[in-house]
């Protein structure tokens, strides 16, 4: 789904739709800091790296505060795309359904034309890639 085909103001995927992307679902269940880092890099438009965000999330998760950090990125994502705060508040979603929320945010970014797995630079390059010029040909 391209970014032009997605209507603003509504989620393109549900909170419990983790199986829509099994690769990301497995990654998030095993190592949520990677999915969080990838999402954060895209949401921040490259202002931080996947590694920095993921490591900070990991450290905060050890002391039980990871969801307080990650819920802010859900709020930013919702703000960027005018998405409703559902099924409940961002902090509640991240506290009670962390893996599901990270997967949903990853799918949302993909459905809006951004691929968190290639980072911000990869997406920026892909969006700014010049079109293929048609060469001259003879009939």
Structure description:
Pfam families: PLAC8. The chain is mainly α and 139 residues long. The chain has one domain (27-126). It is 58% helix and 0% strand. It is built from seven helices and no strands. It has helices at 22-30, 32-43, 50-62, 66-81, 90-96, 98-111, 119-127. It is globular and about 70 Å long. The protein starts with 21 loop residues before the first helix and ends in a 12-residue tail after the last helix.
Q: Which secondary structure elements does this structure contain, and how are they paired or packed?
A:
Elements: H1 22-30, H2 32-43, H3 50-62, H4 66-81, H5 90-96, H6 98-111, H7 119-127
Helix pairs in contact: 1-2, 1-6, 2-3, 2-4, 2-6, 3-4, 4-5, 5-6
**End-to-end Cα distance:** 37 Å
What is the CA-based Rg, rounded?
17 Å
Number of strands: 0
The level of helicity is: 55-70%
Shape: globular
Characterize the biggest β-sheet: none
Q: What percentage of the residues does DSSP assign to strands (E)?
A: under 5%
Please mark out the parts with pLDDT under 50 across 5 or more consecutive residues, or reply none: none
Number of helices: 7
- Mean pLDDT across every amino acid position: 89
Derived structural class: mainly alpha
Number of domains: 1
The helix/strand order is HHHHHHH
């Amino acid at each position: 789904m391209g970014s032009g085909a997605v209507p603003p103001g509504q989620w393109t995927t549900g909170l419990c739709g983790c199986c829509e992307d099994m690769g990301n679902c497995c990654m998030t269940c095993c190592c949520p800091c990677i999915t969080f880092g990838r999402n954060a890099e895209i949401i921040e438009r490259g202002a931080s790296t996947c590694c920095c965000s993921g490591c900070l999330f990991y450290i905060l998760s050890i002391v039980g505060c990871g969801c307080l950090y990650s819920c802010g990125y859900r709020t930013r994502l919702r703000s960027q795309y005018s998405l409703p705060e559902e099924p409940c508040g961002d902090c509640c979603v991240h506290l009670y359904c962390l893996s599901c929320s990270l997967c949903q945010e990853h799918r949302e970014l993909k459905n809006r034309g951004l691929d968190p797995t290639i980072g911000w630079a990869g997406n920026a390059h892909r969006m700014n890639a010049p079109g293929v010029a048609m060469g001259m040909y003879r009939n």
